[in-house]
Amino acid sequence: MPQKVRIALDAMGGDHGPSVVVPGAALALAQHPDSTFILFGDQGRIGPLLAAHPRLKAACRLVHTDVAVRMDDKPSQALRNGRWKSSMWLAIDAVKKGEADVAVSAGNTGALMAMAKFNLRMLSGIERPAIAALWPTMKGTCIVLDLGASIGADAEQLVDMAVMGSAMARVLHQIDRPSVGLLNIGVEEVKGLEAVREAGRILRENPLPHIDYIGFVEGDDIGRGKADVVVTEGFAGNIALKTAEGTARQFADYLRGAISQSIWSKIGYLLARPAFRMLRDKMDPNKSNGGVFLGLNGVVIKSHGGTDSEGFAAAIDVGYNMVHYELLAKIGETIHRHAGVSAADRAIGGAVS
Amino acid sequence: MPQKVRIALDAMGGDHGPSVVVPGAALALAQHPDSTFILFGDQGRIGPLLAAHPRLKAACRLVHTDVAVRMDDKPSQALRNGRWKSSMWLAIDAVKKGEADVAVSAGNTGALMAMAKFNLRMLSGIERPAIAALWPTMKGTCIVLDLGASIGADAEQLVDMAVMGSAMARVLHQIDRPSVGLLNIGVEEVKGLEAVREAGRILRENPLPHIDYIGFVEGDDIGRGKADVVVTEGFAGNIALKTAEGTARQFADYLRGAISQSIWSKIGYLLARPAFRMLRDKMDPNKSNGGVFLGLNGVVIKSHGGTDSEGFAAAIDVGYNMVHYELLAKIGETIHRHAGVSAADRAIGGAVS
Predict the structure, then answer these.
(1) Which residues of A touch B251 (CB under 8 A)?
(2) Fewer CB within 10 Å, N- or C-terminus of chain B?
(3) What sign does the dihedral B205-B210-B214-B219 (CA atoms) show?
(4) Contact criterion met (CB < 8 Å) for A235 and B193
(5) Which of residues 5-44 of B touch A (CB under 8 A)?
């Protein structure tokens, strides 16, 4: 376990840049006093904000750069204009150079993933990265991946995701053997994607020490908390996530509309306000803010672009835990075993066919 | 426009069978007095229920059968045991024989689709069926398809779905040129499925008279009401639908939990009760109950298995409108034009390559 967790921040990322990142870092430091920070970005904007947070100022180093990746830059543009010098690149590069343990950015997802892949490269044994997120459920929180790093996945790639997701659940939720479900559809006639069924077969027939494979789960099982980890390819995963966010927003909107219908419902709302505050907290995407890039040689956390300082602190918190509980080592541990299983499995397949 | 709409009902389908179907039909008749019904199922169970609804009894014919498809029958089992004789088969067969204009069943989706395909066959110009549903949005209701009839889709199949979905929107929502969006993911780095992009190109370059193609939409745009029709392949569509249902249920659950926290929030709830009733109505899947099987030589409506009589009446209402406003003719009309466009399009592709 590292002595201190060293956190590199892209201070210019997100819709609000340093005005959210700096107070967010201050909140995270209060929560984890054993953290140190490196902030990358515009000194002229960051300096005055740091002055208001003397404890953070003492625990951080500020590295100036003029270049920032814009929220609407395409990954190729971002790489062309921002490589070697943007605040986003430098934060990732600090992880690469071993100066930081984790990089956190609220900048644009495509650019962050492109830079992280380009600079950090893949973990040995993993073919390609995945984006994982925390999903509030009726029982607590589950981990869902992939949320859009790649489109489509073969059976081995789905199994890799099960391995990475379960390592993340061990680290964040301290579950030794997380339950893992493969997202599928329940209509009987179409029996689900071939790759999903094949991944299910591999997971069922080759039990891994840190994976409790529970079979297929459907879209409504995610929120029900049926599995600690839900695995799917990036197209369906992204659509599931966005649809759930949209539905939650829709519900909140209806609720607001319903309450403003009459004076009685407004009074009722005032009386029930603490309850509504609890509800908002439960459904607030900020509370489980932080997409985690898995499969890379380093930990990179993507915060929502439009988040506030509390949300950014939550993303840092995820990064802190990843490092503190040694995510990469835990992925490596299972990948290693899985590689053995999988090679054997392939050999059997080869012998039979 | 047909004189009367003749509706065939699988009276044994769903979790509750005749005890929901019969009162549901009575409600539907009250709404559309120009309907007649044929009920297929167990006379011993249906007869006494009909006695309580004399108006329905006068407007319906009861055809006895002992055989019912079970909710957990596989499509192959259902076909083997239920063909020619089950209440589900007979309801579809009434449409095939021209004795009814539409069949409605709350029975299992896979079996219903298998029987409908086997018996009714595909509409000329359509390769395979799709399941469409009504989705409540912030602006009203949109149509989403495919919700799981098939997994995966090529560009032409997605365009077919755009045609069928827009015909359904014309029929149900009286929009002459519905806006149509293709469901895609917004992460820049991965630019979306090849088939989705190709379908977008076809729809953009070959404008169809009854389709206002608005481009790609994301998961959260569905509930936002960005498009009148959202098109996707069945795997992602089914996962989106189930995830949205799960999230709505989760929200309602949180709300209940929040309200029961204190005496004040309970009093608040009582005062705001009409508002909550409105909210429940908005989010109630029963209110937009009725999956529509599109692409077949006949109209078949699948109601939720666990629905109540009000929900079953809503499914009948969807079927009624489909017939009353001549869905099949409207699909045929656009398919016809689309086939012309598409052949030209293929020819151009052929000439260039």
Answers:
(1) 247-248, 251, 279, 283
(2) C
(3) negative
(4) yes
(5) none
Instruction: Give contacts of A 59-78 with B, CB under 8 A.
Output: 74-75
**Preferred mutation among B271, B287, B304 to probe A, highest tally of A CBs within 10 A:** B271
Q: Do B262 and A255 touch (CB under 8 A)?
A: no
Please give the model's pTM, rounded to 2 decimal places. Answer: 0.88
pLDDT at A288: 61
* Residue B352 pLDDT greater than 70, yes or no: no
Tokens of B112: 């219903």
Three-point CA angle A88, A90, A95, nearest 5° = 105
Question: Are the Cβ atoms of A279 and B245 closer than 8 angstroms?
Answer: no
A29 Cβ partners below 8 Å, 6+ apart?
Answer: A35, A37, A55, A56, A59
> Which ipTM did the prediction report?
0.85
State how far the Cα of B225 lies from the Cα of B141, in Å rounded to an integer: 7
Q: Could you tell me if residue B14 is left (phi over 0), alpha (psi between -120 and 50 degrees) or otherwise beta?
A: left
Confidence of residue A249 (pLDDT cuts 50, 70, 90): confident
Half-sphere exposure of B84 (CA within 13 A, CB side): 2
pLDDT tens digits for range B266-320: 777 777 777 667 666 666 655 666 799 999 999 999 998 888 999 999 999 999 9
A:222-251 residues touching chain B, CB 8 A cutoff? 222-224, 232, 234-236, 238-251
d(CA A149, CA A233) in angstroms, rounded, equals 9
Of A117-131, B297-311, B335-349, where does mean pLDDT reach its minimum? Answer: B335-349
Q: State residue B254's pLDDT score.
A: 78
pLDDT of residue B274: 72
Examine the pLDDT at B162 and tell me if it is beyond 80.
yes
- Per DSSP (E only), the strands in A176-224 are 179-183, 212-217
CA distance linking residue B40 with residue B315, whole number of Å: 17
Nearest to B189 among A114, A188, A242 (CB): A114
